[in-house]
């Protein structure tokens, strides 16, 4: 599988990324920090969530829309902030923000973005939520 359009789940996306990206960059994005304990805990928590099918419901026009920060969104999701976007794509955060906008959801601007917040926000229907991390010098 080489096209993102053929991907059916996160595992398929991971396989495509593994083939497309240089190994070191794939591992930065794919891995967790240190012993990867939080990554394992998050995976375990997500695996505990089961889908509860609602039988005999009309699913012809599923509507997941809701409001977030006072704005209507298509789904109750936002795309998480990932700094250094240019390591994976020359368009960096602009491409991610555009994808979020195309799907009618929000995007959280990362703390160490490769692009300015003004450029990333251009053309966004929802606007973006800024993510700021404060660093303190320990030297
Ligand atoms: C390369 C990279 C950069 C990230 N940059 C930020 C950031 O700037 N701000 C932030 O709050 N989280 C950042 N994260 C964390 C992600 O937003 C996300 O919370 C984390 O990857 C866990 O994802 P998951 O919820 O899919 O397990 C970054 C993650 C990666 C892999």
Search tags:
5 strands, two-stranded antiparallel ribbon, 2 domains, binds flavin mononucleotide, alpha/beta, about 140 residues
Provide an overview of this structure:
With 139 residues, the chain is α/β, with parallel strands linked by helices. The protein has 2 domains: 50 residues, no CATH class; 85 residues, no CATH class. Helices cover 34% and strands 11% of the residues. The strands form 2 sheets. It has a 3-stranded parallel β-sheet. Strands 1-2 form a two-stranded antiparallel ribbon. The longest helix has 12 residues. The N and C termini lie far apart (48 Å). The model has no long low-confidence stretch (mean pLDDT 87). The site of flavin mononucleotide (FMN) has 12 residues, from α2. Flavin mononucleotide binds next to α2.
Spatial order of the strands in the main sheet?
A: 3-4-5
Largest sheet, in brief, is: 3 strands, parallel
Number of domains: 2
- Approximate helicity band: 25-40%
Question: In percent, how much strand structure appears in the residues?
Answer: 5-15%
Q: List ligands, each type once.
A: flavin mononucleotide
Q: Tally of extended strands?
A: 5
DSSP helix count? 5
Given as residue ranges, the uncertain stretches (5+ residues, pLDDT < 50) are: none
What would a concise description of this structure say?
34% of the residues lie in helices and 11% in strands. With 139 residues, it is α/β, with parallel strands linked by helices.
